Amino acid sequence: MNNAVAGFSKLSKKEKINWIANEYFSTPGEALNIIRNYWNSDEKLQQLHDEFIENTISNLYIPLGVAPNFLINGKYKTIPMAIEESSVVAAASKAAKFWSTRGGFKTTIIDTEKIGQVHFTYNGDVEKLQTFFQEIKSKFFSDTQSITKNMQQRGGGILDIQLKDKRSLLENYFQLHATFETKDSMGANFINSCLEQFASTLKEEFQDSDLFSDEESLKVIMSILSNYVPNCIVRAEVSCPIQDLAEKHIQNPLEFAERFVQAVQIAEVEPFRAVTHNKGIMNGVDAVVLATGNDFRAIEAGVHAYASKNEQYSSLSHAKIENGIFTFWLEIPLALGTVGGLTSLHPLVKLCLEILQKPSARELMEITAVAGLAQNFAALRSLTTTGIQEGHMKMHLNNIINQFEATSEERHLIKSHFKKTAVSHSAVVEFIENLRK
Hints:
Blueprint: H1 13-24, H2 28-37, H3 43-50, E1 64-72, E2 75-82, H4 88-100, E3 106-109, E4 114-123, H5 126-143, H6 145-153, E5 157-165, E6 173-181, H7 188-208, E7 217-226, E8 233-241, H8 253-269, H9 271-291, H10 296-307, E9 317-322, E10 325-333, H11 347-355, H12 361-383, H13 388-403, H14 408-417, H15 425-436
Helix pairs in contact: 1-2, 4-12, 5-7, 8-9, 9-10, 9-12, 12-13
């Protein structure tokens, strides 16, 4: 019978692990061994990892791979990718090699604006509130000067602050809607610090104002940045003459291009397909975001909101054939940083940024978008030619082999057999069972 525990956060790491092992496992020693086996042997490095989050008991490793041969705006990049799903890195690498001989990837930063909001209620004359806002708007900037000073020196800061009337959505609901430029940092702490000062200024100035009667009141609900950044957009694209698409699995390039465009169009109009289509894009995006110490949950939330901007969830990527040219592109919101947070703390994150040649936040946006587009191209090429399972299941074969703890000799025989045979979990299991008989 499992019991509640009091004061868990105050226990030592050893005490926490012992409690977990004894409370949830019939063989506590075995659980303790698994937990300890994933500790880093370097105590200083393990302590660094322990302090990233709370109640740390061990490390959950995710493989870190690299995808080389990405020609982006005329320069070759090797992209680090942290992901547990087989075939993602292989597919990205294959797409990179394919497009490296066809002009490579082109990228454009459309904008880098980020958003934060102070949410508040007001029950009074709206014209008074609008007049009041205009009177104190400059004070929002002056009161945050100590917060924005360093960011302004780097070319960033507060871009604008607007008063938004949202009473059509909720009774008495208003916003201070602020836009920011945060340069190479993702900027969450900077934005939230500014917003909390806005809220403080708003309350103080309201209390001191002679504009309002005693019956009129203003109440701040919360102050927080938004992970929806529809004006922090990067575009990545590839294009080439249709005949240049020809390769081993594309013997009729025009037929391939037309089928490819149709596959994208289906994802543009059919949400059930769009979700899986965009998941494939995020296989590439998230892997780079995670490898570079950025917040993939924030990126996911913002990207999927952007995919629904036209009131129906739709494809993030698009394709066309025009004047004999095949073009494939995507535009996605990516609020990324290359300074602050884990980027300066996690040794492997720093290594990944070195592999990428110390990119700026804008350059990291471009690289990440390219990884997403490459992943999407690889998936659609498989879907419209050989089918998605052929390549994926061959990569998945290792996982099945490891699950059955195959010996070196068994591993060789299994791989040799499935070079010419379709891979499925049941087929591999059957082959292993027959082999062991």
